[in-house]
Amino acid sequence: MAAWYDSAVFYHIYPLGLCGSPKINDYQGGGQGFKQLDLWVDHMAELGCTAVYIGPLFESATHGYDTTDYKKVDSRLGTNEDFIRWVKLCHNAGIRVVVDGVFNHTGRDFAAFKNLKEEREGSWGKDWYCQVNFWGNSPFNDGFSYESWHGFAQLPRLNMANPAVREFLLDVVQYWVQTFDIDGIRLDCADVLDFNFMRELRTLTDGLKPDFWLMGEVIHGDYSRWVNPQMLHSVTNYELHKGIYSAHNSYNYFEMAHSIRRMYDKNYGICKDARLYNFVDNHDVDRIYDKLENKKNLFPIYAFLFTTIGIPSVYYGSEWGIAGHKENGSDDPLRPAIDLATFKGPNLELEAFIAKLAHIHTECPELIYGQLDELLLTNRQYAYARVYEGKACITILNNDEQEVWVDIKLPFGGGVCTDLIREEDVPVQGDHLSLTVPGNGAMVLRLC
After folding, report:
1. CA of residue 324 relative to chain centroid, distance
2. Average pLDDT, integer, range 391-412
3. In the chain, where does the domain assigned CATH 3.20.20.80 lie?
4. Pairing mode of beta strands 381-388, 213-216
5. Would you say residue 306 has pLDDT above 80?
6. CATH 3.90.400 domain range(s) in the chain
7. pLDDT at residue number 1
8. Are 355 and 331 in contact (CB under 8 A)?
9. Element at 186 (helix H, strand E)
C-alpha cells in the first residue's frame, strides 16, 4: 500500500527567516510567527503542495540549530499551542507536516551543556558531549574543550554512545508526534549521525505512526547507506541538485542523465528502490535564480524536478524566482522575510507553471511509480518517459535559447497523446512523436 510521502509535493519553509524573527532569542516569548504562517497554508494548497517541511522549530538561541529546549517551539515564532493549531490547519488543507530534528548537536544554552559548565567534572552533562577534556579550553574560555559540529564551538556535539542521550532524543520524537501530530522528521546532519540511533528511531516511529516519514540531510556518498528498510525512507538528493543547475549552465544534459542512471538504473542503480528528496535550492544553498546563467532555464529545470524520479520540493519564494545568495559567509540572504499579505512575486508565470506541474505530479501515477526510460539525450535536449500500467508520462527539456524540432520513439505505439501543460492533444505517428519544443522550455505529455 502506497504511503502519503510516495506522491508528496513538498513546500519548504525556514520559519525564523520567513517571519522576520529576531536574530537573537531573548526567551521572553510573545512571538506571532504562526499568525503569519497561517496565510501560507492556503498558498501551499493552491500551489499544489501536499506536504510542508518546516524547520528548525525547537527553542534555540539564534539560527534555530543551536537548540535550547527540545520540547518547546521557538518562542520567537509562538507557543506550543500555536503550533498544534497550525498543524491542524495544514492537515485540514490536506498538507502533511514534517519538522527538523536537530539531534547531532545542541546549543550552549541547552540544560546538559549548562550543567557541564557549572558542575564540570561532577556534572551529569559531561557524558552528554563528545571528547570533553578538562585539561583543554574552548573559544568561549570554558576551561574545558569539546567536539563541535564542523568546528563551530556554539554547536557542541552530542555523545550518541551515551544511552541517556539516545533515550532523551527518542523521547523527544515521541513527544512531538503525540503532542503536535507531526507526520515526519527531517534529520539534520544525518550524514554524521549514529547509524544505531537512526535504526532505533525507525523502530520507534514505525510503532507511533505506520506512515511516519524519516528523511535525512546527506550531502555526499552512497545514499543507500542511509535509505533502507531499517533506517531512513529518503535523503536530500544533493548529487542531483548539483547536476541540475550545472547541466543547464554548461549545456550538458549528460550530467543530469548520468546522476539519474547512477541512482536509479533498474539493474545497478545504488538507490533503485528509493525516492530521494529532490530540490533546486534550500535554506543552505544559493537560490536557483542566482545559480543560473540564463534565468529562462527555470522552466525546464522545474519541469525536470517534478517529472524525474523522486519527491519534489519547492523552497519558499523560489516559486516566484526570487534571488538570494550567501554574502560574507552569512545564510541570511537565503532566508528572507516575506509578508504574503503584501508581497508581489516577480515571476507569476513561473508560479503558475510550478502549480501546473505540481498538479500533474499528483495526478499521474506514472510520475510516482514509473521507471525512467531515456528517449533522447543530447547536450541541449533531454527526453524521457515514466511508464506505468500501460500509460506513459513523457518529458522533453530544451536548454537552448532556440526552439528545436525533435523526433522521438515512443515507449509504445498508438493511443492518444496529450500536452498536459497546454491541455491539448498532440498527433502521434505510429510509435513516433515529432514536435517543436520552445527555447528554454519544456513539454510534459501523457500517452494513453
Report:
1. 17
2. 95
3. 4-104+160-363
4. unpaired
5. yes
6. 106-157
7. 64
8. no
9. strand 184-187
Q: Which set of grid coordinates corresponds to residue 367?
A: 510520475
Give mean pLDDT, residues 231-245.
97
Per DSSP bridges, beta strands 391-398 and 441-447 are antiparallel
Spatial neighbors of 395 by CB under 8 A, at least 6 apart, are 303, 304, 307, 308, 383, 384, 385, 386, 442, 443, 444, 445
The CATH superfamily of 4-104+160-363 is Glycosidases (3.20.20.80)
**Mean pLDDT value across the chain:** 96
Give pLDDT tens digits for 186-231: 999 999 999 999 999 999 999 999 999 999 999 999 999 999 999 9
| Straight-line distance from the first to the last Cα atom of the chain, in angstroms, rounded to the nearest whole number | 24
Q: Is 295 exposed, middle or buried (0-12, 13-18, 19+ CB in 10 A)?
A: middle
Is-contact 347 297, C-beta < 8 A? no
Residue position matching grid coordinates 538528493: 237
CA-nearest of 161, 113, 165 to 140 is 113
The conformational region for residue 411 under phi > 0 = left, psi -120 to 50 = alpha, else beta, is alpha
CATH 2.60.40.1180, the chain: domain bounds:
370-447
Q: Which residue in 40, 49, 52, 86 sits closest to 340, CA to CA?
A: 40
Q: Is 421 exposed, middle or buried (0-12, 13-18, 19+ CB in 10 A)?
A: middle
Is 322 in contact with 336 (CB distance < 8 Å)? yes
Domain spanning 370-447, CATH architecture: Sandwich (2.60)
Q: Band of the pLDDT at 382, cuts 50, 70, 90?
A: very high
Q: What pLDDT band is residue 317 in, cutting at 50, 70 and 90?
A: very high
Nearest partner of 225 among 260, 294, 296, 276, judged by Cα: 276
Q: 53-73: buried (b, 16+ CB within 10 Å) or exposed (e) per residue?
A: bbbbbbbbbebbbbbbbbebb
Q: Which residue, chain included where needed, has cell 543560473?
A: 292
Helices (H), 65-194: 80-92, 111-119, 163-180
Q: Is the whole model's pTM more than 0.90, yes or no? A: yes
Q: Are 398 and 441 in contact (CB under 8 A)?
A: yes
Fold assignment, 106-157: Oligo-1,6-glucosidase; domain 2 (3.90.400)
DSSP secondary structure code for residue 23 in this structure: S
Q: For residue 335, give the C-alpha cell.
A: 532566508
Which residues, other chains included, contact 95 with Cβ-Cβ below 8 Å and sequence gap of 6+? Answer: 11, 41, 44, 45, 49, 50, 51, 52
Which three cell numbers mark 3?
504511503
